[in-house]
Amino acid sequence: MADIQSSCAYCGVGCGLTISHYSSQTLAESNLSLTLKGDSSHPANFGHLCAKGEKLLLSLEQPNTLRYPKLRSGKPLDWDAATRLIADKFQQTIQQHGPDSVALYLSGQLLTEDYYVANKFAKGYLKTANVDTNSRLCMSSAVSAMQRAFGEDVVPGCYQDFEQAEVIVLIGANTAWTHPVLFQRILAAKQTNGCKLVVIDPISTATAKQADLHLAVCPGADLRLFVGLLGYLADNHCLNHKYIQNHTEGFETVVDNAQRVSGCLATLADALGVSKIELIEFYHLFSSSKKVLTASCQGVNQSVIGTDTTNAIINCHLALGQVGQEGAGFFSLTGQPNAMGGREVGGLATQLASHMGFSEQEQALLSDFWQCGHVATKPGLAAVEMFDAVAKGNIKAIWIMGTNPVVSLPESDKIAQALSDCPFVVVSEVSPDSDTAKLADVLLPAQGWSEKCGTVTNSERCITRQRGFIAPKGQAKPDWWALSQVAINMGFSGFDYPNNAAIFSEFALLSQTVNQAFPHKRFNLGGLAGLTKAQYDTLPPTQWPVTTQQQIGQQHQRVFADAQFSTSSGKAQFIAPANSFEALNHHEVNSLHRKPLTLLLNSGRSRDQWHTMTRTGHIASLRANVPEPTLSLHSRLLKPFKLVAGELAQIQSATGSSFSLARVLVDDDLPTNLANMSMHWSEQFSLTKGVNQAIDSRFDPVSKQPGFKCQPVRLLPV
Ligand code: SF4
C-alpha cells in the first residue's frame, strides 16, 4: 500500500515522517512490517531525523499497553459504562461544589482536535476554565511575553530564518540535544553562510561547544544581559529610531534603566559572570549585524523571571526593527510536538480558543459560536495552582490526559498525595504503568502516536497531519471521542462529531469568525474551514495564518514583517521588567553562601530520552548511553560535599523535605556553583524518585510557569 506521511511525536521541530508498509494489510497489525524514515518533502526536516525520531517504531513495543477502560481495582469496564460513570461523577461534583471543582489537565502530546474538544467541553459546557496543560511547564513564559509585546501569542519567524541569519543567538537552549534536526540546519548554515553562533548558557552544553561565542553567564543572569544589551544599543547609536517611533510604544519606559545597566560594562560583565571582552564581543555582534535571530527555550522559560527575560530579548529586536524579518527576530523553540496547536484552541487555562482572552466581547463570540449559553467567565487555574487546589480539596474531580504530573511537576511527591486524596481521578493513557496512571479511579485507553489521526502545529506555526498507520490496540480510542462521549452523556449538544475532520473544520471556522470580529489578530485558519474529509486527509504541511484555500501548503511565512502588530494600537510594546535589578540580584546565588551543603541545580533533557520516559524508557538502545540517573558536577565540589565520583549522591530540596538519588559524575566544564541532572527519571525506570521531588513550586508571576532551573538543593553522600 501507499506510504503514509505523518509527524514525529517527540519535539517541537515537528519533523515529517514517511512510514512504509511492506505487508499488504491496510493497517499493519505489527510494527514489524513497517519502516520509518524522514519525509524528504517536509519543510521542517527535509528527510532528516534525530536518533530518537529514527527509533520511533521501537516506542510501539511497550511492555504493557492499556487495552480497555478499567477501574482502580482492575475491574474492566466497557466504554459506555466508563463514560457514563465519568459523566455522572463530574455532574454530581459540579452540582454539589460548582464548576470550578472539576478540572482537565492536558498535554502537548494531544492532537489539536483533542485539545479543541476538551476546551469546548470544559470552558463552553462545564463553565470552568480549569483546563491547563503540561505546555505550561514548557513555553508559557514565551507565550506571555509575545502576548505582552506583540499583542498575541505569535512566533513571528520560520525555520528558514535560521538559514538566513547573520548571527544566531541560542539562549537557554541545548538545541543539539533537544531540537537536533533544527540544530543540524544551524550547523549547515554556519558552514554555507558563515553565520555566527552565540550560545548563552551557564553550562558548556553540546550546543555551546559548537558556538563561535559561548557566554557562560551566571544562572538567572540572562535578564540583566539583555537589559544591558538594550542600553548598549542606545549608548552606541544603533537604535532604529524610525521603527521605534512608527511601530512601537513604551521605549521611553525601558531605555533609562537599560542605560543605567550598560553604563559600566566592566561592572555588568562582573555581575553576569563573564569577561568584559566576551560581553562586548556579544553586544558588538548583535548591534552590528543586519540579521540577528534569537531563539530561546527552557533555560529562559523555566524561570521565575522567564516572561520578563523574554520581553527583554524582544525589546532588543524591536529596538533594531528586527521582528518578522528574513533571518531576524525572536523565535520561541517549543518543547512538544503540539504545544502550539494546544495554545491555538485555548489549551492554557488563561485563554479562550483561537487566541481569545476573557473579555465580554470574546466570551460572547465564543458562547454564540458554541451555542452553549455562556462560556467560562474568568481564567482558570494554571498547572501548579490546579494541583494545589486538588491538594486542598477544592478540585474534587480531575481528568488527566497523556501526561504524567506525578513525575513532571515540581514538588512531585505532593502531586502524588493530592491525586491519592482526590475523590475522583480519570487518566487517559496508552500504558497503565505511569506513576500517574496508577492513581486513576478510572483509566481510559487512549490511542497513541501511530494509531490516532489529527493535526499538530510545530514551533514555526506549521500544521502537519498526524496519521494513524496501525490498528488501535484493544479498545483504545481517540481522546476527542472519549471527551465527546462524556459530554453527550452529560446531555450536551454539539459533540456528535463523525470524525476528526469535522472537528478541525469547526475550529478553522471559529478562527475565521474570530478574525472577522477582531481583524487585528493574526491567527487565522479560515482557508481550512469547510475542508472535505478527503481534503483534510490529504492536507499537506501548511503554515498559518492561512486565510484562503490557495494558501494551503504554504511555507516560510513570517508574521509582523509589515510591523502591524495585534495590539489595539497596532504597535508593538516595549516591556519593562517588573522588578528592579537591585531586587533581581541573583537571590539564589547569594543565598548559597548562607546555606551549608547547598548548591544550584539545573535539570533538563538528556539527548536520548523523552519527558518521563514513558515512551522511551523501555528502548534499550536509547538507554544504553545513560542507563541510570546521574548528577554531574565540577570536581572541586566533591570534597566540600563529601561526594565520591561514581558513588551515589542524595539530592534534597533546600528544605530537606524530599530527595532523589543519582550517581555522581565529574564534569569540569561545569561551573563550580551548579550541578546538572536529567529531568527524566522516576521510580518507574529507576530505584529512585525523580529530581522534581527536590524542585520547589515557585512560578513566574505573569506566565505561571514553574522555575525548574536554577534551584537551590542540598547534596549529601549516601
Ligand atoms: Fe522528532 Fe524532534 Fe528528532 Fe525531529 S528533531 S526527529 S521532531 S525528536
TrEMBL record:
Keyword Oxidoreductase among record annotations: yes
One GO BP annotation of this record: cellular respiration
Residues of the 4Fe-4S Mo/W bis-MGD-type domain: 1-64
Shown segment, full-protein numbering: 1 to 718 of 937
Domain of life of the native organism: Bacteria
Biological source species: Shewanella holmiensis
Keyword annotations: 4Fe-4S, Iron, Iron-sulfur, Metal-binding, Oxidoreductase
Phylogenetic classification of the source organism: Bacteria, Pseudomonadati, Pseudomonadota, Gammaproteobacteria, Alteromonadales
Protein name: Molybdopterin-dependent oxidoreductase
Any one annotated GO CC term: membrane
MF (Gene Ontology): 4 iron, 4 sulfur cluster binding; metal ion binding; molybdopterin cofactor binding; oxidoreductase activity
